[in-house]
Amino acid sequence: MKSKIKVMHFVSGFRNGGVEQVLLNYTGLVNKNYDIDEVIVYQHKADPKKLKLSQELGNRMYEIPFKKEHPLKNIVATYKLIKKEKPDIVHAHMNLVNFFPLLIAKILGVRGRISHSHIAHDNINPKLVPIFKKLNIISSTNLMACGQSAGNYMYGRKIFTILYNAIDQSKYRYNPKYRKEIRQIYDLSNNTVVLGSIGRNVEQKNQKFLIDIFSDYLKVNNNSVLMLIGDGPLSSDLDNYIKQKGCSNKIIRVKSTLSTEKYYSAFDIFLLPSLYEGLPVVSIEAQANGLVNLLTDSIDKTVDYTGKVRFLSIKDGTRVWVKNIANSLHENQRKEFNEDNNYNIKMHYKDLYSYYVQILRK
Known about the structure:
Blueprint: E1 5-10, H1 18-33, E2 36-42, H2 48-56, E3 60-63, H3 71-85, E4 89-92, H4 99-107, E5 112-117, H5 129-139, E6 142-145, H6 148-155, E7 161-162, H7 176-185, E8 193-198, H8 207-220, E9 224-229, H9 235-244, E10 251-254, H10 260-266, E11 269-272, H11 281-288, E12 292-296, E13 309-312, H12 319-328, H13 345-361
Parallel strand pairs: 1-2, 1-4, 2-3, 4-5, 5-6, 6-7, 8-9, 8-11, 9-10, 11-12, 12-13
Helix pairs in contact: 1-13, 3-4, 4-5, 7-10, 8-12
């Protein structure tokens, strides 16, 4: 095996999603500590701040045409890039369409081809799902997932490796200075209850239901606000819905920030009533801050590493969520937790590099 490994990652986009954050968390430390060349290939226009940060961490970045709009151009660009770069490993993070770059990599003789599942629920036409899953397996040499549920969903009974969505937990520790700073920016007193949620404005995140929850909680506690951090294609739709609910003066919209760690310290409770998730990075970050998390009960239960996660049904309506908000406020004590856990990037970035090495030794 040659001394310097070249890994080419393929992602659907490079904005402010969980997959992108996981990539930055791992590549930042792997690049710093090992002799490795990492390339990230993305579609759509990247978030400029995220793109700059990735490059500063040592990643080389390429944009290719969006496969949904330009499938042939996407295939040609992928073929040319892989042929030009000659990676040792192609690591695909595109879920059900991982086979797009992986089949091309297989044709071009790339030794290591990793299909990485970040979801545990269909997000395309259900008729295509079993076909795409088989293509992912056929085109790969190695199967990977962010958790047990995501792996079982994508690969069934096949053997797969779990790479947890680890973070720099020290970065997300509760900081009273951050709490004061953020609350002063938005003119919030320390005794105002701040409910927080972070995620792209897409249907998956179920943010209209979150607004419904908050609207009902306001009837219980008027001294509260909801802070929604994130942007996306449904942003205008959400703004209109907030107006319809009469909550405009109680919901704070933060559409873009790289410093989410500061906002967690300003929150009192973190909510994520998504329709589906793989294993949400934002919950892992929120727990590192010591927050109680109220999550949809379909989310992989292994996301809970602090004992402060409550899994609730969205089928039961808003009442159970409102009740849990009220009951959880007394738990809002930022207690220390054992750092020897699956989500500590400082302990687990080495696992990914070792995994790459093992692939190339076969």
